[in-house]
Write the structure tokens for this entry.
Amino acid sequence: MTNQTAWNAALAEEIIAGYKDIQGATLPVLHALQDAFGYIPDEAIALVARGLNISRADVYGILTFYHDFRRSPPGRHVLQLCRAESCQAMGGDALADHVRERLGLDWGETRADGSVTLLPVFCLGLCACSPSALLDGRPLGRLSQERMDALLDEVAP
Amino acid sequence: MSVRLFVSRDAASLAVGADEVAQSLAAALRRRGIGFDLIRTGSRGLFWLEPLVEVETPAGRLGYGPLQPSDAEAVAVSILAGGAPHPSLLGLVDEIPYLKQQTRLVFDRSGKIDPLDLAAYRREGGYRGLAKALALDPAAVIETVTQSGLRGRGGAGFPAGIKWRTAAAAGGGQKYIVCNADEGDSGTFADRMLMEGDPFVLVEGMTIAGYAVGANKGYIYTRSEYPHAVATMNQAIARARAEGLLGPKVFDSTFAFDIEMRVGAGAYVCGEETALLDSIEGKRGQVRAKPPLPAVSGLFGKPTVINNVITLASVPWILANGAEAYRDFGYGRSRGTMPIQLAGNIRYPGLFEAAFGLTLGDLVEKIGGGTASGRPVRAVQVGGPLGAYFPPALFDTPFDYEAFAAKDGLIGHGGVVVFDDRVDMARQARFAMEFCAFESCGKCTPCRIGSTRGVEVMDRILQGENVEANLALIEELCETLRYGSLCALGGFTPYPVMSAIRHFRDDFMTPKRRFVAA
């Protein structure tokens, strides 16, 4: 389960201020905000820009370039399923189809009940135990459809 | 009696239940009133045997694996009887042929010690390289690295010594060492395993590089997909700093060096060195045009040595044992050892560090044991998503930069992904284009637009639409990508696409497939 606090501009400014003296702080700041709040709301863009003395356009450009950064809140659980070649060779495509159908989600979507967000990931470095995934940051390998179903029963009953 | 147990905490071991096995075994021993030390190590890289439990005996470590939590009682009984027969008992771990056949220079300690135990690291040979380096003139350190023949292990294979010399010669002032730990290729996990299993060797290698070129600051840029590696590296850096091995007086010398971790945000292209530098600078990870070379004008416009994890982690061994000893391993112009990663549909997946020169067939069939599914091997992708697909007909190709290039392939970062006969190579070619489109940084047109057009053309081929004409179009498009792209993402996407067409043309001609839209 991901545990983040609700968006709070004062806390965000405090976080941003902690990175003022770091060179090239944009990514560390965005990571810290996402770790704290689960996502980076549009309101944060101006705060980051002001705090790091860069333009809002720059912050927006960086925020939207990197696949990791989310601009809306994720579900209570985040499932990152590997779609890369090693996992494909071990039936990853069929597993992915099954998960998408079972959850009724396409890549990047969150269930309406807010239970789970499904994200594609291109390699977790767990290629020696494909197919693999991260569930709320927990590594999972040698995933069978049965094991995945058991996990999904817990996170999205 | 007291028992010493070793269980890996490598992310891949955790992914298959190492924590649960360790807990069950600990509980089983406790119930019997047996005292024990449980040491969490990195992984040996014998992943089909994970979760693997090792037990210290006078003869060496006995291994049990792969285990499940439910095996704990029986394994405890076997351990207490001094290694009594058990179906998962593997004998002495060092005698397992897969491990015994390897030449472990870089991964010697991984799986043996607690990765954050600095005393164990030093006991096992750590910091001998840096001690030797600090006794030498910086130029002599660069000369040693040059003489060793070490080439960049990230994929490009550029001689490390020449890169270092260029940065050293770039005048005084601020310089940087950047470790490229943005290991995004599917089928590769050597960087991750090293950072989780023996982080101090990377700290030591970067410190030597800093001393050699006159840099006082290092960055390690790794992936957000590697949270365990990030945590281990951060702790290792803090410990090295606390012990005076990083900081204003490294080893009580006048040399100052420190390291900072930086974490990417899910962009494959940031593994390209100039995109990586932009990302550390806090920008979009877009590729820079070269020249200038990073060694002349790199991070924040300063001279920067940027090397892969394995390149830097090879340096302490080279300094400790000498350039000659390292150069004695290898094949042709590829000197030393390469941690080859066997993955995908393979019976014995894992890390196999060996001198260059083994054939692809030996790696896949003899060492890897063929497919996990037991079906025939059909295709092997070497070098990640930008690497070529090799058919078994090319299995005599030796693992060497030049030999793979001669067969229109590349060894890249050493990833080997095996597919059985159920693979549809036309779909793999489509995936290569899709991946390029998804990950393109957008700076150059061939990659940004060509990849999307490539997916569209592949979709037409998959639907059996004007196949010959569309194949000709794909080949032309690949030509444009190959020669017109700014970096290897667009430039090398043609490798998997063209190799699939060249070696597996039937898959493109017969519409046997179920077309699956992404």
In short: Chain A touches chain B through 47 residues (CB under 8 Å). Chain A has two domains: 9-65, 77-155. Strands of chain A lie at 77-82, 116-121, 133-135, 138-140. Residues 26-37 of chain A form the longest helix (12 residues).
